[in-house]
Amino acid sequence: MKQLLAALLLSPGVLLAQKGDFTIKGKIGNLNAPAKLQLVYRSGGVEVKDSAELKDGVFQFKGSVEEPGQAMMVLKHVNPPADPRMRDMVVFYVEKGTITMNSADSLKKVTFSGSPLNTDNQQLQESLKSVSTAYQALNGEYMAADEQKRNSPEFQQYLDEKLAVIRGQQGDIYKGFIARHPKSMVSLDVIQQYAYEASDKVGQLDSMLNSLDGSLKKTKNGQDLAKLIGSWKATVIGAEAPLFTQNDTLGKPVNLKDFRGKYVLVDFWASWCRPCRMENPYVVAAFNNHKDKAFTIVSVSLDQPTGHDAWINAIHKDGLTWTHVSDLKFWDNDVAKQYGVKSVPQNFLLDPQGKIIAKNLRGEELDKRLNELLK
Question: Is the pLDDT of residue 81 over 80?
Answer without folding.
Answer: no
